[in-house]
Amino acid sequence: MTGKAANSGRLDKNMQRRFVSIWFCQLLADWQLIRRPELAAVPFVFAAPVHGRMMITAVSALAAAAGIEKGMRAADAKAICAGLEVLNDKPGRCEKLLRALAEWCIRYAPIVAIDEFAKDGLLLEVSGCPHLWGGEPAYIKEMVWRLKSKGYTVRLAIADTPGAAWAVARFGKVSPLVASGEQATALLPLVPEALRLEAPILAKLRKLGFYQVKSFMGMPRSVLRRRFGEGFLLRLAQALGTEQETLIPVQVPVDFQERLPCLEPIRTPVAIEMAITRLLENLCTRLKAAGKGLRHGILTGYRLDGQLVKVAIGTNAASHSVSHLLKLFKLKIDHIRPGLGIELFILDVPKVDDVAAAQETMWAVKPGLDDQGIMRLLDRVAVKVGPNVIRRYLPATHYWPERSVQPTFSVTEKPAAAWRLDMPRPTELLPVPVAIEVMALIPDHPPRFFIYKGVRHQVVKADGPERIAREWWLEQGEHRDYYQVEDDQGRRYWLFRSGHYTSEKQFKWFIHGFFA
């Protein structure tokens, strides 16, 4: 494992930003060859209907060698190349494939965006990442080798700006590594298409005899603006770095993230635990400095075969304790399937909370949920049996019993009202009262027996009634008269009569809870 971890949220302010452009030269054709290797000896193209005609959208290497180009009519392509196989293209297929490749490339940089101009490549902000692979040459070589091993024909370049990296990746002929601050020099010998310009602007440039960027680079801005417009100047400025270009990542990196590339793929539980420990040490140092604590953490392992393995933990209270968080992750190590080996670990913390400083007390008291030991016990139980098993309820300011409690997902949340203790309440409250059959000697007296789920219960003791009125500001309806009753088996129930006993139409009995 490497001795450092790169983090997208804490780059040195003085660090020069660096970008990588990945051009998939034959994206759809390579994808098809991966799926159908038998097409390697056959020229083929993808075509889609445009205004009633089948137009070529992607070309294989053999088809391109025969003179077939993107944008040509499929009928003309068949006339040019005998034995050409035409495959149907589907809308959105290229975008879907690029997104999947972008998510795979997150192992190399936290910010990966789809090239929105050409729709055939990716743009990565790699500031602070190449040194984890031994420098930019080794970094580029690793990405090229890995993508080619998967079957994709690619060209890469790295520069200070996305525009310069894009230009060199597609049109550069010297080196894919543009030294910091040398983007202008790298752009000079390139054709105007390298600036990602629209077709009408390119036609004007060719008409005026501007076949290289150096032909107009030194011209006054006012002249260029008058002839080619603001869009032309913006693209030129973005490539040179005088205008900022914002990338829209396929996955927005969280504020607290740690990355740990491995010099050698790891497979053993001991090595995985060591990697998690390194990540947590770096993460908790940052969390502590910010006064924050982890509430939800996701560990992602990038395997050699391209698959991802993920485990997640949660805490009831914000924590930046390495030992506590490590215990939670250790309970999940058995769920990590490393396969041939994991080459990169990423620890994301999408949810954090402020950590309140613990107040020391002179005498020990009953801390309840303020006890950190109880918090950590709940965290470990939740990791083992699931977070939904542990529930906590707070009192709500409502008269109706089923509305008088509310669930909460935070152990530290304080109730807005106190629990009502003046009247007894059942230990188990049904979410919805269940209708029962009752026999009472006098209508406003407690029942002598009741039938619940087909079983007759003889009442030997009863207390009540306790009248609870309906909340008129929420809904209209009858009040309830509640009774605590005990049957001849010693079991106690909470029953109520809905409505006044003189109201025959609304006079019904229900069971609402059970006492211990």
Q: Overview of this structure, please?
A:
The chain is α+β, with helices and mostly antiparallel strands and 516 residues long. It is built from 13 helices and 19 strands. The strands form 5 sheets. Strands 14-15-16-17-18-19 form a 6-stranded antiparallel barrel. A hairpin with a 4-residue loop joins β9 and β10. α9 crosses α10. The longest helix has 22 residues. The protein is elongated, with a radius of gyration of 35 Å. The N terminus is likely disordered.
Low-confidence stretches: 2-10
Number of strands: 19
Across the major sheet, the strand order is 14-15-16-17-18-19
Shape summary: elongated
Short précis:
The chain is α+β, with helices and mostly antiparallel strands. It has 13 helices and 19 strands. Helix content is 26%, strand content 28%.
Notable features of this structure?
elongated, six-stranded antiparallel beta barrel, 19 strands, 26% helix, 516 residues, alpha+beta, 13 helices
Task: Give the topology, please.
Layout: E1 19-24, H1 27-35, E2 44-50, E3 53-59, H2 61-65, H3 74-80, E4 85-88, H4 93-104, E5 111-114, E6 121-125, H5 136-149, E7 154-159, H6 162-171, H7 183-187, H8 199-207, H9 221-228, H10 230-240, E8 256-266, H11 269-290, E9 292-303, E10 308-319, H12 322-330, E11 342-354, H13 372-385, E12 392-395, E13 405-408, E14 428-439, E15 449-452, E16 455-468, E17 480-487, E18 492-498, E19 508-514
Parallel strand pairs: 2-4
Antiparallel strand pairs: 1-6, 1-7, 2-3, 5-6, 8-11, 9-10, 9-11, 12-13, 14-15, 14-19, 15-16, 16-17, 17-18, 18-19
